[in-house]
Amino acid sequence: MAGGELRAGPLALLMVLPALVFLLAIIAYPVLYALWLSLHEVTLGGLAKGQTPFVGLQNYAKLLRDATFWRAMLNSAQFVSLSVALEVTLGLTIALIINDRSARFFAGVNKTLMLLPWAVPPIANGLMWFYIYNPSFGYLNVILYDLGIINKFMQFAGNFRLAMICVVVAFVWRVTPFSVLLLHAALQGIPEDLYDAAKVDGCSAWNRFRFVTLPLIRPTLTIILVLRTAFAFMVFEEIFAITSGGPGDTTWVASWYTYQHAFSYLEIGVGAAAAYIMTLVVALVTTIYILVIYRRVEYA
Q: CA neighbours within 13 Å on the CB side: how many for 55?
């Protein structure tokens, strides 16, 4: 207390206490319960009878011995690498275009159009691309056939070589506006004086981007990489609607593996263990991003 008033630290804690309690109620309990499930043999019948014997780390050991689990993790790594690289590249390119003051009309149109994919629910997006890729009447086949690129309709989502790419394209189309919005905001925050000074020093457009723009948006890029990697690792709706994990196990990603074991095979403990391993992997990648990429930048 100072003069009958709370100091800034305790006052801040008091103000956020209701939110902390709410978050603990809706996040901490499910997370801890999932951890409890991962350490027990849990089936649907066992839950109904209250019979969930403790098995320790056996569920985790089962996962590590399962070749399908490792295949799913490798597929997830492939999906995350492709989707995050594409999303950040496209997001930065579009953000630079709409930030160009010399093309205000084009920038305004882009700002409007880029929000449309973000408004589409994930499952609706998956179903839309499922019909686009349809081998019998999909618009992609129709366009390619009319252009003379193909001489007959072909499989896209059902092709072993193309299935993962099809899902990546559908996912990136939906989520890229998120990166565009954050990067555009970061670009808007860079003082124009810095670019003017760089021009006076004889910097080319590429060097202005490399030595002015890129360093100043690194914190935002780090945030985007962390969030998009986490969400890409949890992709489910597009997989469910477009390929259902197929063909074969080509698009069996970690989240699909978790879903299958928890809700199809009713091995709830194994599914919870898989979810926790996913969490650890995302936490590790996030830490690497922060250590390697993040830099605090200050400028007058």
A: 21
Rounded-to-integer distance, Cα 127 and Cα 131, Å: 6
Q: How many Å from the N-terminal Cα to the C-terminal Cα in the chain? A: 36
pTM for the whole structure: 0.87
210-216: long-range contacts, CB 8 A cutoff, minimum separation 24: 213/96, 213/187, 215/295, 215/297, 216/186, 216/189, 216/190, 216/297, 216/299
Count CB neighbours of 193 within 10 A: 10
In whole angstroms, what is the distance from residue 260 CA to residue 72 CA?
Answer: 12
Q: Which CATH class is domain 67-292?
A: mainly alpha
Question: Which residues partner with 5 through β-bridges?
Answer: 2
- For residue range 138-193, list pLDDT tens digits in order: 999 999 999 999 999 999 999 999 999 999 999 999 999 999 989 988 998 888 88
**Nearest-CA neighbor of 293 among 228, 196, 207?**
228
The one-character DSSP state at 162 is: T
What residues does 40 pair with on adjacent strands? 54
37: which residues sit within 8 A by CB, 6+ positions away?
Answer: 52, 268, 269, 272
Q: Where are the domains of the chain?
A: 67-292
Beta partners for residue 2, in sequence order: 5
